[in-house]
Structure formats: structure tokens, C-alpha cells
Amino acid sequence: MRTRLIATDLDGTLLDSDLQVSARTRAALDAARAAGIEVVPVTARQPRGLGLIAAQAGFTGWALCGNGAHGVHLGTGETLFEAHVEPFAQRAVAAALTERIGGLLFVSVRERGEVFAAQAGYAELAHFEDHKRWPHEMQALPLADVLAAPSLKLIVRHPTLGPDELLREARALDLPGVAVTHSGAPFIEVLAAGVSKAWGLSRLCAHLGIQQGEVLAFGDAPNDAEMLAWAGRGVAVAHAHPDARSAADEVAASNDEDGVAAVIEALPELSAR
User: Fold this and answer.
1) Could you write out the DSSP letters of every residue in 182-211?
2) Which Pfam family is an annotated match for this chain, by its short name (predicted)?
3) Are the C-beta atoms of residues 32 and 267 closer than 8 Å to each other?
4) What is the pLDDT of residues 185-235, one digit of tens each?
């Protein structure tokens, strides 16, 4: 089955270690688009963070942000869908995790990703690279205010525990009404139940009339695993997290070795041109 859509993660996958799009990668993406293939960024970033590299990659069409919770057209601003974690579910997550671990800090990402409602103390742990936002721009709210409104995603962070350990603790609770993942950043991300990059990608493909088997997907982190398993062809990059590698059909070279570009360049749809 021919490839009609390329879905690619950004950080750790398409972007190099300097968070840049290499010349080879840009050329491969352009060649795919010239061959009539949709190229869709599928990222934990919000549109604001995606905008920092959109011009480098030539992204002007549909994008899936917030781990698949938000489908948006970068050119028109049209929202195809949004999925929110409701306040009651957020409060249940915060209460259960705090009882199990303690010392946690929370952020609610709201309103198309423009609002970053951070709990007091969160900014002291954060760096610009974490959220593509400067810590001094972050709010410092009481926890009750953070949890009071629906979120595209709820961020959970601990001063010392890493994302793999936090993810194990959260999944051990088996809380209803939410899905939990991480993108390799130093926190976990709570989404509405059933939401993942695969969930968002399936909705976009249905909108575009593209079949599952016509999708080529790239990723490197636990939040990419569902997408890599769902796509007709799922490719993990060489340094990928074990969750991503086990979900993928194959492994490409690393992001610093233009692994995504190498796979795209070899597509028969391009070589036939």
C-alpha cells in the first residue's frame, strides 16, 4: 500500500540534538510533499512551541499537538478537534498521586495551548526547553486554581523523580477517566481517557480519507508508542525509548544521523518521480 501520510514526532525524532531541522531532513520532507504525501507533525508541543520550528520544516497544514489531543491547521488556524481532561478527573489524579508520592507540582495547559496555568513553585523547576516557555512568564497559582478548568493536558512534575518512575507510579494507580504518558521531558502528561497520538492521528486520517495502512509514522518516546503501533508502518529512531522500539515495525538511524530523512528518501513514491 502506498504512503499517503507521514506522521512524525519532533523532539528526539525529526529534530536534531540542537532542536533544528537539518538541510537533508527539510529536503526529504519537501520531496514527500511534492509527491503528494501529507506531512503532519505529531507532537507533545502546543501550537506555540511548534511554531518555533514550523518554518524550518515547511509545516503549513494540519498538525497534531498536545500528544494528539488537539488537531489544528497551522495555515488557517482551524481546530479539527480538542479533547480535554475534566476538572473532576484532574482532582482525582492530583489527590491519588500526591498521596502515593508527595512533593508533586502541576500545570494545566488550556485554551488551544495558549494558557499555561502553573502551580506556585513549578517555574523554579522549569527551563525554556521543557515547554518552549520562559519560566518567568509562568503563572504561580494555588493548586485548586490549576485544577479548576478543563485541560488539553495536565502536567505532573517532581523535583527529583524522573518521568519513567513517575509514569510507573501513575499507571499503577489505574485511575479512570485519564491516559498518562511522557515525551522524554522531565514530567508526565495526563490526557483525557483514550487520547494518544494514535487517537488524534486516526481522527485526522478519517477527516482526510486516508487509511491506516497508508500512514508512515516516526517516533522515539513512550508517547509515540501507540502511534507507531497504529500506523501501517511505524519507525522508531535508533536511540528510542524501549516502549517506542517495541511498538515499531523497524528502527532507523538516530535523529542526529537524519534517520527520518533516510527512510523517506527510500520511499518508492519518491523514487518513482
Assistant:
1) --SSSSEEEEETT-SHHHHHHHHHHHHT--
2) Hydrolase_3
3) yes
4) 899 999 999 999 999 999 999 999 999 999 999 999 999 999 999 999 999
- Amino acid symbol at 62: W
Note every long-range contact of 98-103, with CB atoms under 8 Å and residues 24 or more positions apart, other chains counting. Answer: 100/169, 100/172, 100/173, 101/158, 101/161, 101/166, 101/169, 103/158, 103/159, 103/160
**Helix (H), strand (E) at residue 218:** strand 215-219
In whole angstroms, what is the distance from residue 162 CA to residue 41 CA? 26
| Alpha carbon distance 58, 109 (integer Å) | 26
| pLDDT tens string 38-97 | 999 999 999 988 988 999 999 999 999 999 999 999 999 999 999 999 999 999 999 999
Domains and CATH numbers, the chain: 5-82+196-271 (3.40.50.1000), 87-192 (3.30.1240.10)
Out of 130-134, 177-181, 236-240, least confident range: 130-134
Closest listed residue to residue 117, CA positions, set 149, 79, 70, 71? 149
Per-residue pLDDT, 175: 84
> Within 10 Å of residue 58's Cβ, how many Cβ atoms?
14
CA dist 49 and 40 (Å) reads 15
